[in-house]
Amino acid sequence: MLHVETELAERYGVRGYPTIKFFREGKIFEYNGGRTSDEIIRWLKKKTGPPAVDLSSVEDAKKFVDSNEVAVVGFFKDLESADAKIFKSVASEMDDFVFGITDDDVVYSELKASKDGVILFKKFDEGRNEYEGELKEEDLKKFLKSNSLPLVVEFSHETAQKIFGGDIKAHNLLFISKESSDYESRVDVFRKVAKEFKGKVLFVTINTDDEDHEKIMDFFGLKKEDTPTMRLIKLEEEMAKFKPPTEGNSESEIRDFVNGVLEGKIKQHLLSEDIPEGWDKEPVKVLVGKNFDEVAFDKSKNVLVEFYAPWCGHCKQLAPIYDELGEKYKDRDDVVIAKMDATANELEHTKINSYPTIKLYKKGTNEVVEYNGERTLEGINKFIETDGEYGKAAPDEVIEFNGERTLEGISRFIETDGVDGAAVKEEEEAEEAVREDAQAHRDEL
User: Fold this and answer.
1) Nearest 5°: CA angle at 181, between 178 and 187?
2) What is the 3-state secondary structure (H, E, C) of the chain?
3) Residue 49 confidence (pLDDT)
4) Using CA atoms in the order 247, 248, 253, 254, what is the torsion angle rounded to 10 degrees?
5) Distance between CA atoms of residues 173 and 258, nearest Å
6) How many CA atoms lie within 13 A of 70 on its CB side?
7) Spatial separation of the C-alpha atoms in residues 84 and 107, rounded to whole Å
8) Dist. CA 204–CA 173, nearest whole Å
9) What's the rounded Cα separation, in Å, for the pair 76 and 117?
10) How many Å separate Cα 110 from the centre of its chain?
11) Tens digits of per-residue pLDDT, 176-223?
């Protein structure tokens, strides 16, 4: 269907698959929730019915709370009050939750509500959270997001969006096997510390027995034998990763690790392989994080570096050409041809978004120039001989990531050479606007 109805997809701004849109009375609502049937049904009910269900009896209220993992109830003696209207407005906007509303004294008593307000009921942790203070839309949204997730969230396809799409951008990840004999005791300790950082850091477990999580472990340079272990990530402009100074998982070690990151005492962790024996014996030198700066920033040489990924098809096609380039310059004292596996080695000063990426670190100045010409021996050789002028990338050729800020989303962005999740360029937005205007004009005719 998506290959056949391309014009239809273009007309309605479909940029990725699957995309779900709901059409009602001429308005279009795009679905951005989870992929389970329950989540889609809940969203549809919200869009086709009242934003908050009327809980007019104890039976209705008990069924509403008992049948949902998380349920939000507004208690308002005056259903047309300013606070009730704020509650309904939030209910209409937040599709991830089910909302109920009541003015019935008996329901107040049954659900132990002593006054007007909002209570979040949940089937985990403390069981319920009462909103305190003046009712404001943004504050209520933050309250619901903060309290609707367990203190310790198990990572899965279903929870990924809630984890990475929330307001909390610091996540402490515990990589652990659910089959291990001490799983429950370790998670209990993890949960105890999580209470202290509620609202600041999300605590997440990642089951290392699940094959779907192997890519996540690769992203952190972890193997199953390295677990159980923690890594903390901060999702800001760049994803920063932090490694605990010790491999213990005691209460004090977990607490000290998280505090150390939040207080800036623990530096960002950058992956690096060990320097391989004989790394400089072949025409193409092998760089890793530990020897990169020493080689690349040697001002007496022009250093050309290919940043590659072992699984990248384009990198494999380039390999024989690059080896030939190495042979060509192997006797030159002022030129170094090198390569680095950028999936296993990270650099604080250089972020690689696509593979292969070729950069020239210039002699004398250490100026860095990226190559964007044809991947041929002649093209790359000319790039070196013209001191990085021929085929250099324009400054604005950097592809900005604008997709889901999840491990899976960023991984897809990298693997598709910056296609999946790329920010829409202004020209593309303009073209889209022109197409929409033209279509609207045709519709009028």
Assistant:
1) 55
2) CCCCCHHHHHHCCCCCCCCCEEEECCEEEECCCCCCHHHHHHHHHHHHCCCCEECCCHHHHHHHHHCCCEEEEEECCCCCCHHHHHHHHHHHHCCCCEEEEECCHHHHHHCCCCCCEEEEEECCCCCEEECCCCCCHHHHHHHHHHHHCCCEEECCHHHHHHHHCCCCCEEEEEEECCCCCCHHHHHHHHHHHHHHCCCCCEEEEEECCCHHHHHHHHHCCCCHHHCCEEEEEEECCCEEEECCCCCCCCHHHHHHHHHHHHCCCCCCCCCCCCCCCCCCCCCEEEECCCCHHHHHCCCCCEEEEEEECCCCHHHHHHHHHHHHHHHHHCCCCCEEEEEEECCCCCCCCCCCCCCCEEEEECCCCCCEEEECCCCCHHHHHHHHHCCCCCCECCHHHCCCECCCCCHHHHHHHHHCCCCCCECCCHHHHHHHHHHHHHHHHHHHC
3) 72
4) 80
5) 11
6) 18
7) 16
8) 5
9) 7
10) 41
11) 999 999 999 999 999 999 999 998 999 999 999 998 888 888 888 888
Tell me the per-residue pLDDT of 259-281, one tens digit each, with 9 for 90 and over.
999 999 999 888 888 999 999 99
Q: How far is CA 23 from the centre of its chain?
A: 29
- The number of beta carbons lying within 10 Å of the beta carbon of residue 249 is 21
Distance, first Cα to last Cα, the chain: 28
- CA 373 – CA 394 distance, rounded (Å): 11
Q: Cβ neighbours of residue 246 under 8 Å, at least 6 residues apart?
A: 253, 257
pLDDT of residue 146: 85
Output the CA torsion sign for 341, 345, 349, 351. positive
CA pair distance 401, 421, nearest whole angstrom:
6
Which residues of the chain carry a pLDDT beneath 50? 1-2, 396-398, 424-445
For the record, the structure tokens of 226 come out as 């390295």
* pLDDT the model gives residue 90: 93
d(CA 368, CA 303): 10
Whole-structure pTM over 0.70, yes or no? no
Dump pLDDT digits (tens) for 70-83.
999 999 999 999 99
Q: What length does the chain have?
A: 445
| Residue whose structure tokens are 């291990």 | 180
**Amino acid identity of 294?**
E
Paired tokens of 386: 């013209």
Count the neighbouring beta carbons within 10 Å of the beta carbon of residue 199.
12
